[in-house]
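user: can you give me the structure for this one chain? tokens are fine.
assistant: on it. calling the predictor now.
[tool input]
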Amino acid sequence: MQSAKENGSALQKAVTVLETLFQSQEPMGLAELSSRLDLPRQTVHRIVRQLEGIGLVNRSFARDHFTVGGRMLDLGLNALHSASGLTPMRLVLKDLVDNIGETCNVGVLDRDEIVYVERVECDWALRLQFRPGSRVPIHATAIGKMLLAHLPSRTRRRILTAAPLERFTDTTITDTVAL
């Protein structure tokens, strides 16, 4: 594969930036992206700002560090669903629902929300129904609380102080200390 520098296409450079962010375990700064891509920092900055403007990249809680954005997650989910790529995951979730009688789902963290990747509902008459791609505040869902519990304490603190903890039910935890 040609490097982004060898291929002068702006689209190729943008895709290479996204691929690099996907491969990173942590938010990446402009200097690191520039170094990894062997592109001038100004070029990377321009590309990242354009991607951020359309929601494909998010600015991290750390200044001038970036991660894959919510719109990119939505595009990925749509691609998986259109290609039936989630069928094996759906079968596992269905088996779990059949065995335990509870709704089961898979979700990912996007800033302070959980985005449902796949979900299989139980047969209860009264239940919340979310479709894949639905977003729920991190503090208002079990999967969100589980992910919060395993985040580094600084990241958890930043997420919990960035947005108000809205009450959705009588049992929604809205106190950061209690959460």
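assistant: here you go. The CA atoms of residues 139 and 145 lie 6 Å apart. The domain at 10-68 is CATH 1.10.10.10 (Arc Repressor Mutant, subunit A).
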